[in-house]
Amino acid sequence: MSKLPKEHKFIDFSDYGRPIARLIAKALKNTKFTPIHVTIGFIISGLFAIYCILNGYYWLAAFFLVFKSVLDATDGELARLKQKPSYTGRYLDSVADIVLNALFFISIWLISNNSIWICLLAFFGLQLQGTLYNYYYVILRNKVNGDTTSRVFEYKAPIALRGETQKQVNILFCLYKILYGIFDKTIYILDSDADLGKILPNWLMTGISTFGLGFQLLVIATMLILGLKTLIMPFFLAYTLMVFVFIGIRKLFY
Fold first, then answer.
1. Helix or strand or coil: residue 226?
2. What is the reported pTM?
3. DSSP line for 29-84
4. Domain assignment present for 129
5. What number of other Cβ atoms are within 10 A of residue 58's Cβ?
6. Residue 2 is assigned to a structural domain of this protein
7. Whole domain around residue 55: which residue ranges?
8. pLDDT by residue (tens digit) across 149-159?
9. At residue 3, what are phi and psi to the nearest 5 degrees?
10. Which residues contact 50 (CB under 8 A, 6 or more apart)?
């Protein structure tokens, strides 16, 4: 099942793992594996990637980074196939992503000549990019009657769905707000009326998809293989300028 109606689908550079994710999800559909199990799987893959980065196994690190992206798409696909969406899975996925992203950047900082300030600013930029992508993507899905598991504004914990407890949802929502709050607030301040604008065209969403986590991890994997580990964090820091470019385009035309 797609998150968007056919006419609003766009080329998503961050979603290259979706075809494989769908195959894995179909294979797991009639098993006891749940989307949460898959999420745990991508956490393990991310930890393997960190180990490989720290020990100089960059080809293996690249593999585990890409595999993590594939599994990151698989949990949602499996939830839709089993028709068991959950806020527990949605928030666990997001919390795991930001913690792993921080560990990825710490690992790269330890093997490169960058200062800790470059590391921190690049990480902030990385998360800001991903937040803008998710912000516009969720708005689009809500406008065109797509998948609505994610919400445009995360003000309070949602009511637990069937098969999950409210306590689990509340705890994970609290963690989500702590970890993502500053990024959500920053993007909201920069473009607070985005949900009132026009439906963003496919070409613009394709450009913004370069902010998606899947594409970000692919860039990191590629630069590690090419021996450009020292340039990874400066790249993401510089690319954060595109946040203002995309917001400017949205405000001027849509």
1. coil
2. 0.93
3. TTSS--HHHHHHHHHHHHHHHHHHHHTT-HHHHHHHHHHHHHHHHHHHHHHHHTT-
4. yes
5. 18
6. no
7. 11-253
8. 566 667 788 88
9. -80, -15
10. 100, 103, 104, 107
Question: Tokens 């963690």 correspond to what residue?
Answer: 175
First to last CA, the chain: 28
Which domain CATH number covers 123? Answer: 1.20.120.1760
Q: Per residue in 6-27, pLDDT tens?
A: 888 899 999 999 999 999 999 9
Instruction: Quote the number of domains for the chain.
Output: 1
Q: What are phi and psi of 106, to 5 degrees?
A: -65, -40
Convert the pLDDT of each residue in 86-140 to its tens digit. Answer: 899 999 999 999 999 999 999 999 999 899 999 999 999 999 999 999 999 999 9
Q: Is the pLDDT of residue 1 over 60?
A: no
Crossing angle of helices 58-81 and 87-111, in 10° steps, is 170
